[in-house]
Amino acid sequence: MSVDILDQVRQAVAEARATGDPRPGRPTLVRMTGATDYQVRKALATLADDERPAGASAGEPEPPTVPASPGASARLPRPWPLIFIGLAAAVAIWGGWVRLGELTGFGPINLLPGVGGGFTLNTAVVLPLSVEFYSAYALRVLLASDRLSERSRRFARRSFLASLVVGGGAQIASHIMAAAHVAGAPWPVTTVVACVPLLVIGLATGLATLVKRDTSASGDQR
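Predicted structure:
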């Protein structure tokens, strides 16, 4: 670990302490110093050793903190309502995508022509499966991965927002055409919807490659 990185981390922590601001976390320090998460982690460990009282061993746990008030230890509400909210949203989103797919030419096809009765699949289901699953994957990468580079997080953030825009536009188009009793979507809508699966597989491949590259780099530094 570079001494310069340690000095930068120490200075950032000292400035936050002097101004009364919260202590900056690892992602913030990575952006401020331009170092890797591993280097920032080592610098924070060194600062913790320097601030440990004399006579305390490195492996000695810190004393437990006492809640500031009786309400501080109150149980947080459980997120079980999210199950029903998610199910309701999933049904609505799935129905909108399938209806839009059928209006733009997606529908039942025989995946095994010439082989007995074949295997029929309604290809309209690929739209919600691809777009909404990628949106969830990009959000997971954005929120739950503190070891990723800023480039990977930026790609995840932008593609997640793009998937939300595409999903919202699809729901709007689906409901408008259903309310107007349109038998078939206009060709611009059909063109955009037909390209959605290709765009999603490209974005998913790119994001997965960036995540794998950052994971490998972090492992090499360790």
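Summary: Residues 27 and 146 are 6 Å apart (CA to CA).
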